[in-house]
Amino acid sequence: MSVTDSSRTHLRLPGDPPGGPRAAAVWGIGVAVYFVAVTYRTSLGVAGIDAVERFHINASALATFSILQLLVYAGMQIPVGLLVDRVGTKKMLALGVVLFTIGQFGFALSHSYGMALGSRALLGCGDAMTFISVLRLGSRWFPARRGPLVSQLAGLMGMAGNLVSTIVLARLLHSVGWTPTFLGSAVGGVVVFVLVLVFLKDHPEGYAPPPVHHSGGAYVRKQIVESWREPGTRLGMWVHFTTQFPAMVFLLLWGLPFLVEAQGLSQAMAGELLTLIVLSNMAVGLIYGQVIARHNAARTPLALGTVAATALAWGTVLAWPGQAPMAMLIVLCAVLGACGPASMIGFDYARPANPPERFGTASGIVNMGGFTASMCTLFAVGLLLDATGDNYRIAFASVFVLELLGITQILRLRARAHRLESERIVASRVETVHVPATA
Fold this sequence. Notes:
The protein has 439 residues and is an all-alpha fold. The protein has helices at residues 3-10, 21-42, 48-55, 59-87, 89-109, 113-127, 131-141, 147-175, 178-199, 217-229, 231-262, 267-294, 299-319, 326-336, 339-353, 359-388, 392-395, 398-433.
């Protein structure tokens, strides 16, 4: 076992929070907020065809919904990371819930394209405040060695929100209609808002972080620059960039139209395949979390292996003459399910590279990666569909361009990031050995 592996299994750093049932309960409230946010984020993925009819728009205009939502989300990541480090998790989650719930209410009541766009932008702003806050909450309530598993579990519960979209909202949409479906789902935001206000705490008693001295713009620049200087932060961003977006693009918008219009499936069957992505994501997330918690060196092979499998599955489906066989579509969706868990690996590079008071900022930088890639791909697919007369084979080929870019950056950064992380772990072990037993 390497130094890195053994440290993850046995090392208890000074000042590590104890974890335990109370930690799980408090963290669970944060995860519930993320669950609701993902449900709202992905609700358009099952309503794309209905949105075209409701707002009388084309493919590019439909893509603008998700592009704007992700543009706001990605643009908010560094500001949110800075604010989480500065004001704490509870305030950020509460504000996020208010914004994404108002956005979902607005989307439910929208009859014009402009109002619907504004609602999705507001939703994206609130959504942007959730995941980084949940990651920071986990780092404050659980020992560092639990970090990979806690991150994967958070991602897994988020995908459960996606499951609500693909199963529950999709059926409600076609049985009770647009407004009742989205209004009903918005009630979830009200429930988690109350839970956050009443029960959520930023950290356990006795484990408050050291005070951070803020000095306006100087503090902001220092947080961003020092986080970006770390090769682990940049490597994490590129891992997130390369692994997340193929499944995100498929689930968020273009999967259902592709399966229905290009592959000739019914909406019900297409919805089942989208559900398969979510179920695969949840299963793979549990496996990846356990493997990385025990064998830290598995991070890069898992990330690159997921990218390779995704490219192979996509290439096979797109190269198939005519409509692909159902078995091939099932394999594609099962493989896409690994993209979310693989993207969580990016945070496992940033976490040990940054001190706790900078973790929110570093997480924001990492989280920008996948959502920036998703936004670019959503835009490219929409443009190519309109330009080629709905040729999905050409439109989805844009996936390979971004994957190639991401792989080159991962290979460029990984050696230095791994070396610096190993040096820090050795130093931490030496420090731990010299900590008195009563500390």
